[in-house]
Amino acid sequence: MKLKIAIDGKKYEVDVEAVEPTAPSPLMRGIPLGSAAVRVPAAPAPAAAPAAGDNKPVDEAKVCRSPVSGIVIRVAVQAGQSLQPGDVMLVLEAMKMETNITAPAPGKIAAIPVKEGDSVQSGQVVVEFE
Fold first, then answer.
1. What is the 3-state secondary structure (H, E, C) of the chain?
2. Taking the complete model, does pTM exceed 0.70, yes or no?
3. What CATH architecture is 60-129?
4. 10-28 pLDDT, tens per residue?
5. Domain limits of the chain?
């Protein structure tokens, strides 16, 4: 079968060969297809589990968790420092991109359990607040 097509104003004549004869698609005839099974992804993995000897519950309002798995390339704060919302606390590198971890609310840093060069997992506590 020969078709004439135009691309960017230029006209082309194209030979097209049907490999397998098929009936027109139901969509082409205006008939909707029936429903198909939809695969729902599994629930996200739970946050990093506490260490074996650390069974006390964590007050989520007093910690900052890593949003991604990566390497700590810069720690921009220190324990005892006061923060305002949006202040950069850490910089992580994940998949050749840098991610700034910023303060979610005003507060004071109690501890930073990670240091430059450390590998962190998504959900791992990277900053603790007072």
1. CEEEEEECCEEEEEECCCCCCCCCCCCCCCCCCCCCCCCCCCCCCCCCCCCCCCCCCCCHHHEEECCCCEEEEEECCCCCCEECCCCEEEEEEECCEEEEEECCCCEEEEECCCCCCCEECCCCEEEEEC
2. no
3. Beta Barrel (2.40)
4. 888 888 777 665 555 555 5
5. 60-129
